[in-house]
TrEMBL record:
<keyword id="KW-0677">Repeat</keyword>
<dbReference type="GO" id="GO:0046872">
    <property type="term" value="F:metal ion binding"/>
</dbReference>
<keyword id="KW-0479">Metal-binding</keyword>
<keyword id="KW-0862">Zinc</keyword>
<protein>
    <recommendedName>
        <fullName>Phorbol-ester/DAG-type domain-containing protein</fullName>
    </recommendedName>
</protein>
<dbReference type="Pfam" id="PF03107">
    <property type="entry name" value="C1_2"/>
</dbReference>
<feature type="domain" description="Phorbol-ester/DAG-type">
    <location>
        <begin position="20"/>
        <end position="72"/>
    </location>
</feature>
<dbReference type="InterPro" id="IPR046349">
    <property type="entry name" value="C1-like_sf"/>
</dbReference>
<dbReference type="InterPro" id="IPR004146">
    <property type="entry name" value="DC1"/>
</dbReference>
<dbReference type="InterPro" id="IPR002219">
    <property type="entry name" value="PKC_DAG/PE"/>
</dbReference>
Length: 120
């Protein structure tokens, strides 16, 4: 299980909604107590507090959401690329290079909706 430790101030400050997050930009994510749910990003159990989408019924660890906020810049592209590691057919994207489904770890540009396998 994931070892989750939270500072009380961070929890109170974090009880907010996130919109437009690269992992789940279609709907709002809300930080809630969602123990015993599975994080869709890392597949580990959320033991206490995490982010949830009430529309899609998906959940994320706080750490997984924070780590996904880190992006990379590629010289030949105008937007930043994010490394996604979602392994769920509901959120699979087609690779913009080879057209096969992107599964597990892949890169994506949220601005253009362009996604590609790590190897592509």
């Amino acid at each position: 299980e994931c070892q989750e430790i939270y500072h009380p101030w961070c929890i109170e400050a974090g009880r907010r909604k996130l919109s437009g997050h690269p992992f789940h930009y279609d709907h709002m994510l809300q930080m809630l107590e969602i123990s015993k749910a599975t994080c869709i990003a890392c597949k580990l159990i959320i033991t206490n507090i995490g982010y949830t989408c009430s529309d899609c019924k998906v959940n994320f660890h706080i750490k997984c959401i924070q780590e996904a906020s880190v992006s990379s810049k590629i010289k030949s592209h105008q937007h930043n690329f994010y490394n996604f590691w979602i392994d769920d057919s509901q959120f699979t994207r087609a690779c913009g290079v080879c057209t096969r489904p992107c599964e597990a770890s892949f890169y994506g540009c949220v601005g253009c909706s362009f996604y590609a396998h790590v190897e592509c």
